[in-house]
Amino acid sequence: MLLLIVNFYFCLSCFLGGYLDCLQLLVQYGADVNVPDIKAQTPLTMAVKNHHIKCVHALLIAGANANGDARSLCSPLYIAAMNGYKDILEVRSFLPQIRVTLLCIMV
């Protein structure tokens, strides 16, 4: 039960304001960086949507899947590209996965 609460607040910390310190503390205590919410949005997806670049970087370093949850219709990379968030697309941890995602968008 405690882990479920921690994961909920992990998502919330990314979503509400990009609270980097909170995010790092939750990761330190074992929060799942890939836990999806009811809409299959991961913390990374929410951080990208809200343009919190420091949280995006921290989540990727902590092992967040740059493609998001398989049940989601849009990956975090796709959301960043569609919103023109060039600074997020330039985060080093995203770079190895960008070519594949952009090819998928163009097809």
Please, could you describe this protein's structure?
The chain is an all-alpha fold and 107 residues long. It has one domain (2-106): Ankyrin repeat-containing domain (Serine Threonine Protein Phosphatase 5, Tetratricopeptide repeat), CATH 1.25.40.20. It contains 7 helices and no strands. It has helices at 2-17, 20-28, 43-49, 53-61, 76-82, 86-89, 95-106. Helix 1 packs antiparallel against helix 2.
Quaternary status:
single chain
CATH fold name: Serine Threonine Protein Phosphatase 5, Tetratricopeptide repeat
CATH class: Mainly Alpha
Query: Whole-number radius of gyration?
Result: 13 Å
**Count of alpha/pi helices:** 7
Q: Which stretches of 5+ consecutive residues score pLDDT under 50?
A: 99-107
- Structural class comes to mainly alpha
Instruction: Round the mean pLDDT to the nearest integer and report it.
Output: 77
Assigned CATH superfamily: Ankyrin repeat-containing domain
Count the strands?
0
List the defining traits of the structure above.
107 residues, mainly alpha, Serine Threonine Protein Phosphatase 5, Tetratricopeptide repeat, 7 helices, globular
